[in-house]
Amino acid sequence: QAELPRSAAKKSLPRRTQIALLPQWQDRILVRRRGLDGMLGGLWEFPTGQLRPDQAPTRAARQLLAELGYGGKMQELGKIRHSYSHFKLEIFSYLVQLEPPLPIAERDENQQWLTLAELAKLPLHGAHKKIFARLAHPG
Fold first, then answer.
1. How far apart are the C-alpha atoms of 6 and 24, rounded to whole Å?
2. How far is it, in rounded angstroms, from Cα 105 to Cα 102?
3. Using one digit for the tens of pLDDT, what is the confidence trace for 61-95?
4. Residue 45, Cβ density class (10 Å: 0-12 exposed, 13-18 middle, ≥19 buried)
């Protein structure tokens, strides 16, 4: 009775590491809508890929850029951290000034090129809101 109950040891959460690209063409940045199924369904995000433990972030970013069919000059925006109830997320983000020619893409309602003002009104998920804040308010 005289002792306080001990707190249960906190379980360590798994850590996931990703890269996010912010491809920019003129004054617009590419975003994609997540599928409706699963975590964060229907929210918007920048093109993202998983980072393997043996991979350097910049190299993974260049690989994702090539997979998207783009080329350009990358500028690191930095790393953000975001916690969910069942894992912790680290994202290395890069602004990419795209170089022509851009691949011709079919119209896709789940992919848009938006200005910063339009992005500010878009429902980005929490981690990508932090990336957007770095872009919109550098420093």
1. 52
2. 9
3. 999 999 999 999 999 999 999 998 888 999 999 99
4. buried
What CA–CA distance (Å, rounded) separates 70 from 21?
11
Geometric angle at alpha carbon 11, from 7 and 12, rounded to 5° = 135
Q: Indicate the pLDDT class of residue 106, thresholds 50, 70 and 90.
A: low
Question: Greatest CA span in the chain, whole angstroms?
Answer: 74
Please tell me whether the peptide bond between 14 and the residue prior to it is cis, using omega within 30 degrees of 0.
no
- Per the CB < 8 A criterion, the answer to whether 78 and 6 are in contact is no
Could you tell me the pTM of the whole model? 0.84
74 forms beta bridges with 96
Q: How many CA atoms lie within 13 A of 51 on its CB side?
A: 22
Cα–Cα distance between 68 and 108 in angstroms, integer?
A: 14
Record the tokens describing residue 124, joined without a space. Answer: 């980005």
**d(Cα 9, Cα 27) in Å, to the nearest integer?**
49
